[in-house]
Design goal:
The protein is mainly β. It is built from one helix and six strands, in the order H-E-E-E-E-E-E. A six-stranded antiparallel sheet has the order 1-2-3-4-5-6, with helices on one face.
Length: about 90
């Protein structure tokens, strides 16, 4: 369960700019053989991420507010700072 929580947190926040979107469209990505399907919904000054990790159908609900993430992932309570993002430089010819 801890492996799932760490993988979920690391993966979701690697794509932090996606949380700024103002719609609740379903998004998904795959990491280490686990597919995460979630929605991102603004609620006041917070962003709520709700979804499921497959296989296993492990549900998660995370609330991002003021640089902190609180919620539940696979039945485990989680709370941590939003990881700092790094700039990605894309090579071109």
């Amino acid at each position: 369960m801890t492996r799932f929580t760490i993988a979920l947190a690391a993966t979701l926040f690697a794509a932090a700019p996606a949380f700024a979107a103002d719609n609740a469209a379903t998004r998904s990505f795959t990491r280490d053989g686990v597919t995460y399907v979630y929605t991102s919904t603004p609620k006041g000054d917070a962003q709520v991420l709700e979804g499921v990790a497959k296989p296993g159908n492990q549900k998660f609900r995370l609330v991002v507010r003021n640089g902190w993430v609180d919620g539940n992932a696979a039945g485990t309570r989680v709370s941590f700072r939003v990881p700092k993002t790094t700039k990605v430089q894309v090579a071109s010819r």
